[in-house]
């Protein structure tokens, strides 16, 4: 049986052991990236980039997804012509138990506080 050629559209991701806390915190320090992660956590499944209506250009959106991918927060794969995004919750919860839930909870509390503020 032949092994298919490596997909030229495969995107590089850090393996679990390469994911660093400071990289995650940097990736989550931007409000748009935090919004992306929150949406992925709520969905609990892969979402295409086109599902995110961000108030920035396509190239800036691509940059934000790349920062999240390179930090190990999301996994991106091509499915046909769509680039699909999934939160790497298993990896993150194994390495840093409770971190993602704590950050997302804090972000939601902050949003509620500033909305009523």
Automatic annotation (TrEMBL):
Boundaries of every HTH arsR-type domain copy: 13-107
Listed InterPro entries: ArsR-like_HTH (IPR011991), HTH_ArsR_DNA-bd_dom (IPR001845), HTH_MetalResp_TranReg (IPR051081), WH-like_DNA-bd_sf (IPR036388), WH_DNA-bd_sf (IPR036390)
Top-level division of the source organism's lineage: Bacteria
Pfam families: HTH_5
TM regions (residue ranges): none
Keyword Transcription carried by entry: yes
Assigned keywords, A-Z: DNA-binding, Transcription, Transcription regulation
Keyword Transcription: yes
Protein name per UniProt: Helix-turn-helix transcriptional regulator
Organism for this UniProt entry: Streptomyces thermoviolaceus subsp. thermoviolaceus
């Amino acid at each position: 049986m032949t092994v298919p050629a490596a997909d030229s559209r495969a995107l590089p991701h850090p393996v679990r052991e390469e994911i660093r806390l400071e990289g995650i915190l940097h990736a989550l320090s931007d409000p748009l990236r935090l919004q992306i992660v929150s949406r992925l956590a709520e969905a609990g499944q892969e979402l295409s980039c086109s599902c995110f209506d961000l108030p920035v250009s396509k190239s800036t959106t691509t940059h934000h997804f790349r920062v999240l991918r390179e930090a190990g927060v999301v996994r991106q794969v091509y499915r046909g012509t769509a680039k699909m995004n999934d939160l790497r919750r298993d990896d993150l919860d194994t390495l840093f138990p409770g971190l993602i839930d704590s950050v997302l909870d804090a972000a939601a509390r902050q949003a509620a506080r500033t909305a009523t503020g």
